[in-house]
Design a protein that fits this description.
about 450 residues, 13 helices, single chain, Rab GDP-dissociation inhibitor activity, Guanosine nucleotide diphosphate dissociation inhibitor, FAD/NAD-bd_sf, alpha/beta, GDP_dissociation_inhibitor, about 30% helix, Guanine Nucleotide Dissociation Inhibitor, domain 2, RabGDI, 7-stranded mixed β-sheet
Length: about 450
């Protein structure tokens, strides 16, 4: 373990593995360590035996659930936007060659007590019960405007300054009603509450545009989401492989890994088992940096095993359902995520569903009732409550670059925002996902 590195990364959660891969590809010498003996950390995927060991130690899973190895149950379940930042990072790093993806069947939203499909085509929009006839015309004008909008082409702005006007003003301009605003803001733009209404309209317009671009990116998509076969545990391992290809060193099962600081309080290495590896800076999840993060919220999540698809979702094998805050009388949204044996995450004819939200009361499990009510009969249910930590500082002073915890959303957009923010704090510049990765391009030329 002794030696000198540019960076030491602690924890093999998805965020840490992406950063490790990006830094290795950038030419830095990276040592990656984890106190666990497996990849994934907080974002690992568990087989049935591991799931029982986590929630019901000493008990064994019922035989009728099928073989343990057939399950890959995500600890932090999330789908990927087909044209989102994570997919762009996967392409930039060429990690796609280690993974196999499958489309997610549908995106749904709770509206007036009903589970409604978020329209994926113009024909679906015309038939959708989410809007009345006249509202559909107004919404169509709004969506055409968003789809045609180009930041660099003023002709597409139609006299509107989206940097100056609020999103509420943009909705008003197109005459959209409260129900439409609710599903657009939460099921398309994926905002977690309504604070965005008073913010400039441009970021939300781009989020809605991303939703549309993701649905149209690949032919035949019925939702904007994709998901890897065998669960999200495949992602950290894929980025770990990437880091290793570019010289990264991995050490698991380092239970006593501890950050070492100099007299000025700056991180200069990591010690474990009596040895110390030196480095210029340390990256990791909050659990490796006591006193350097604070809990900002709590997430309650129910993991459920079902013997059927979620009712009212067209018998879908994989779905996301968003329950906007106003629809269920809350301050924050609730999320339902469901996958099945079709994505190789459960035994044959079994579904794995999750319900998650931000804790708002002293009885977190009771808060999940609106989401659990949508699932139908539940074979098994496990509930967890975790604190979501955020770093106190940006890392520039003490050389400790700390990731945030995982929020309750069932998509990766906020996760990748944190990763790209970490990358910028570490390197001093944005990751240019529109360019070709220079080291990959060089490697491909050598192979040719």
């Amino acid at each position: 373990m002794d030696g000198e590195y540019d960076a030491i990364v602690l924890g093999t959660g998805l965020k840490e593995c992406i950063i490790s891969g990006l830094l290795s590809v950038s030419g830095l010498k990276v040592l990656h360590m984890d106190r666990n003996s497996y990849y994934g950390g907080e974002s690992a995927s568990l087989n049935l035996n591991q799931l029982w060991e986590k929630f019901r130690p000493g008990q064994t899973p019922p035989k009728e659930l099928g073989p343990s190895r057939d399950y890959n149950v995500d600890s932090v379940p999330k789908f990927m936007m087909a044209n989102g930042q994570l997919v762009r990072v996967l392409i930039y790093t060429d990690v796609t060659k280690y993974l196999e993806f499958k489309a997610v069947d549908g995106s749904f939203v709770l509206n007036k007590g009903r589970v409604c499909k978020v329209p994926a085509t113009d024909m679906e929009a015309l038939r959708s019960p989410l809007m009345g006839l006249f509202e559909k015309r107004r919404a169509r004008n709004f969506f055409i405007y968003i789809q045609d909008y180009d930041e660099k082409n003023p002709a597409t702005h139609k006299g509107l300054d989206l940097r100056a006007m609020s999103m509420a003003q943009l909705y008003t301009h197109f005459g959209l009603d409260a129900q439409t605003i609710d599903f657009v803001g939460h099921a398309l733009a994926l905002h977690r509450d309504d604070a965005y209404l008073d913010a400039p309209a441009l970021p939300t317009a781009l989020k809605i545009k991303l939703y549309h671009d993701s649905i149209t990116r690949y032919e035949g998509l019925t939702s904007p989401y994709i998901y890897p076969r065998y669960g999200l545990g495949e992602l950290p391992q894929a980025f770990a492989r990437l880091s290793a290809v570019y010289g990264g060193t991995y050490m698991l099962h380092k239970a006593d890994a501890t950050v070492v600081y100099d007299e000025a309080g700056r991180a200069v290495g990591v010690s474990s088992e009596g040895e110390t590896a030196k480095c210029k800076f340390v990256v990791g999840d909050p659990s490796y940096f006591p006193g350097k993060s604070r809990p900002t919220s709590r997430v309650v999540r129910a993991t459920c095993i079902l013997s059927h698809p979620i009712p009212n979702t067209d018998n879908a094998h994989s779905v996301q359902i968003i329950l906007p805050q106003k629809q269920i009388g809350r301050r924050s949204d609730m999320y339902v995520f469901c996958c099945s044996y079709a994505h190789n995450v459960a035994a044959n004819d079994k579904w794995v569903a999750f319900v998650s939200t931000t804790v708002e009361s002293s009885n977190p499990e009771a808060e999940l009732a609106p989401g659990l009510a949508l699932l139908g009969p539940i074979d098994e249910k496990f509930v967890s409550v975790v604190d979501v930590h955020e770093p106190l500082e940006d890392g520039s002073k003490d050389g400790c670059f700390i990731s945030k915890g995982y929020d309750p959303t069932t998509h990766f957009e906020t996760t990748v925002e944190d990763v790209l923010g970490l990358y910028k704090r570490i390197t001093g510049h944005d990751l240019d996902l529109d360019s070709k990765n220079p080291r990959l391009a060089e490697q491909q030329q050598q192979q040719e």
